[in-house]
Design a protein that fits this description.
The chain is mostly helical. It has one domain. It is built from 5 helices and no strands. This is DUF2938 domain-containing protein.
Length: about 170
Amino acid sequence: MPSGTIDLLIFASVVGIGSTLALDLFAALSRRTIGMGGSDWGLVGRWLMGLSRGELALADRETATSAIEQASGWLFHYAVGVLYALMLPVVGGTDFPVQPSVPPVIVIGLVLSSLAGTMILMPAMGGGLFGARLENRRARIAYVIIAHTVFAAAQFGFSVIFAMLQPLGI
């Protein structure tokens, strides 16, 4: 693998894992303070496993999730965070890892991730498109936008830290 590819993978790992961790910390704080947090990643893991059986929407929300469902869901969550970070140089140009800018993190970290959450994950979890089946739809949509604003801000912050460390050879 050329060194540029390795550098890109390191960038994506640092920014993707860091920003996803920031999102998870925000979700934990939100759950404790307002009673509304992020996704149940065990149920997401169950949904992912159901896809292999042709089940597009989660069928069972009641049974406790298994360790493999939990692990699958959390791994998927962080892999998506890394994938979003890999997309930043696609939108922001190949210099993005050393010269980050705000527009790509708005496009990827806020807009794309919010749309994916409301158009893929919510329907898959039984909440309907844009949370149409949820009792507290407006609050959930507002939460998604606020949480993904935190995610986008963290993407930018970790991108800046990564860029600052590059002259040091880190």
